[in-house]
């Protein structure tokens, strides 16, 4: 029963959700709304689960003095600071001039911006080391990158404005993005979609049972 | 070790320093650059520009401060365009930080003299519905009842009591949906549920990293248009004839791209110059 009941629930919910997607009329539309409400409630609880998991991992790290345990203190204290300030500010916690706004603007925003901006440095360094015309495929990739990188910024326009319209850097970049790039993306998306469909069917039909845990 | 071999083994800290200079230094100069517009951005602009006054526009803020430099100028120029055309704006977020980002953009735009002169009222001309957990399932719920997905707005006012939300039940009552996205949940989910399932007219603004993934949806018109990265924001500002942060930052981004391309060329020159020696060894 420990395996059969979860498998049955999965199969019933899975098939029901497939039917309600294609039949948008009562009672199926009501079932769809009911499931959507349940999902939102479960998703909201998942946030609390995430908080508990974050605290558990970091408390354990401090307790066992694992490598970098000092940073776990920063995580826990930062978390506590934002929660306490957010709760004490009430509903308007995000408004301009509140203490939460100050923390968000002066700590959270610069930290996130720093993390994201590091990308620019890695792209610069990786481009220098990896973008080599070693063979035909790599050369094609290199040329595509060259046209897209320059064609997507005004400097590309200035470099190629003497060329006839349709042959400028920007036009080249648009053509690369709209044809070979889009074709590649479409192929990847179709592949992923087919993978998701087959995996979902395996789960719904009870062939794939690893989500139950155990052996 | 020869010059080209040394060049191949250049310390990456030198590259980092040059990139930092290339990005930061141009920000101190106010250089106006010509920004070419693309059909993708014109698609979003035209869709908004052809809406009649009083039409309802839904904007979903699905990003956090990490993507602010790219997406916040898009949000600001889009708000400005909507308010200039007297459209009614409904804001929401599938990311917890999204509604806060929306408020930041609103603060900027509502304080611009020409927009301020319109004396726009919260709840009548615009509203922030806040965040609801549930990712794409929230979009699906909105397809049947937006009030059920967002029972209250960002400030706790029941949605049923908000003037702008009267007569808005689902996507049939929304004239245009605009999604600002930096990942999951984001534009892909809006296409799959709002555009495909409920036939909403959808446009999007994405980070430059994510934008190429959305091109297949442009080809099928599941997206009427797409703004990609800071360039997309700059194009929108140019189309709206209101150059702002996006256009200003184009100089910095242009120089940074040129430096990266210069490094790519330099790396290849050094690679080919040392090829013979590598083969011999």
Task: Give a concise summary.
Chain A is an all-alpha fold and 215 residues long. Chain A has helices at 4-22, 28-63, 69-89, 99-130, 136-151, 154-160, 169-204. Chain B is built from 13 helices and six strands.
Detailed description of the structure:
The complex is a heterodimer of chains A (215) and B (281). By secondary structure, chain A is mainly α. Helix content of chain A is 78%, strand content 0%. Chain A contains 7 helices and no strands. In chain A, helix 1 (4-22) packs across helix 2 (28-63), helix 2 (28-63) packs across helix 3 (69-89) and helix 5 packs across helix 6 (154-160). The longest helix of chain A is centred in the N-terminal third of the chain and has 36 residues, at 28-63. In chain A, 13% of the residues are buried. With 281 residues, chain B is an alpha/beta fold. Chain B is built from 13 helices and 6 strands. Chain B has helices at 3-8, 12-24, 39-49, 68-84, 98-110, 113-116, 136-144, 146-149, 187-195, 215-219, 229-239, 245-273, 275-280; strands spanning 56-62, 88-93, 126-131, 176-181, 202-206, 225-228. A 6-stranded parallel sheet of chain B has the order 3-2-1-4-5-6, with helices on both faces. The longest helix of chain B is centred in the last third of the chain and has 29 residues, at 245-273. The radius of gyration of chain B is 22 Å and the shape is elongated. The chains are: A mainly alpha (215), B alpha/beta (281). Chains A and B meet through helix 2, helix 4, helix 5, helix 6 and helix 7 of A and helix 2, helix 5, helix 7, helix 10 and helix 12 of B.
């Amino acid at each position: 029963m420990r395996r059969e009941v979860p498998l049955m629930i999965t199969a019933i919910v899975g098939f029901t959700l497939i039917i309600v997607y294609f039949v948008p009329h009562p009672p199926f539309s009501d079932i769809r709304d009911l499931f959507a409400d349940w999902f939102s409630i479960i998703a909201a609880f998942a946030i609390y689960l995430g908080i508990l998991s974050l605290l558990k991992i970091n408390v354990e790290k401090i307790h066992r003095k694992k490598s970098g345990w000092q940073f776990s203190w920063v995580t826990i204290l930062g978390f506590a600071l934002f929660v306490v300030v957010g709760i004490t500010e009430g509903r308007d916690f995000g408004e301009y001039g509140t203490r939460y706004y100050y923390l968000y603007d002066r700590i959270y925003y610069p930290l996130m911006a720093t993390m994201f901006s590091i990308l620019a440095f890695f792209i610069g360094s990786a481009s220098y080391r990896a973008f080599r015309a070693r063979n035909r495929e790599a050369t094609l990739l290199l040329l595509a990158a060259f046209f897209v990188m320059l064609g997507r910024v005004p400097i590309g326009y200035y470099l190629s404005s003497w060329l006839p319209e349709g042959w400028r850097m920007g036009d080249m970049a648009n053509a690369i993005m709209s044809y070979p790039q889009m074709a590649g993306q479409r192929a990847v998306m179709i592949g992923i979609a087919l993978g998701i469909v087959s995996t979902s069917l395996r789960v719904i039909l009870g062939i794939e049972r690893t989500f139950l845990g155990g052996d | 070790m020869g010059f080209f071999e040394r060049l191949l083994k250049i310390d990456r800290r030198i590259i980092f320093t040059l990139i930092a200079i290339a990005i930061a230094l141009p920000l101190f100069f106010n250089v106006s650059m010509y920004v070419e517009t693309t059909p993708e951005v014109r698609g979003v602009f035209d869709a908004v520009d052809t809406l009649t006054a009083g039409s309802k526009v839904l904007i979903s803020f699905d990003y956090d401060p990490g993507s602010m430099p790219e997406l916040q100028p898009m949000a600001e120029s889009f708000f400005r365009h909507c308010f200039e055309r007297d459209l009614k704006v409904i804001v929401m977020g599938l990311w917890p930080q999204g509604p806060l980002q929306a408020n930041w953009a609103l603060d900027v735009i509502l304080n611009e003299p020409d927009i301020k002169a319109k004396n726009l009222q919260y709840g009548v001309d615009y509203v922030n519905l806040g965040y609801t957990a549930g990712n794409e399932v929230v979009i699906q719920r909105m397809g049947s009842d937006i009030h059920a997905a967002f029972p209250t707005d960002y400030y706790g006012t029941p949605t049923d009591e908000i003037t702008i939300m009267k007569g808005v039940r689902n996507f049939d009552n929304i004239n245009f949906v605009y999604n600002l996205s930096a990942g999951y949940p984001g534009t892909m989910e809006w296409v799959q549920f709002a555009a495909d399932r409920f036939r909403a007219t959808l446009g999007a603004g994405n980070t430059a990293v994510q934008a190429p993934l959305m091109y297949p949806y442009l080809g099928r018109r599941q997206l009427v248009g797409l703004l990609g990265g800071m360039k997309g924001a700059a194009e929108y500002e140019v189309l709206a004839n209101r150059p702002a942060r996006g256009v200003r930052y184009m100089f910095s981004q242009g120089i940074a791209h040129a430096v990266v391309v210069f490094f790519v060329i330099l790396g290849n020159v050094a690679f080919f110059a040392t090829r013979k020696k590598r083969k011999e060894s």
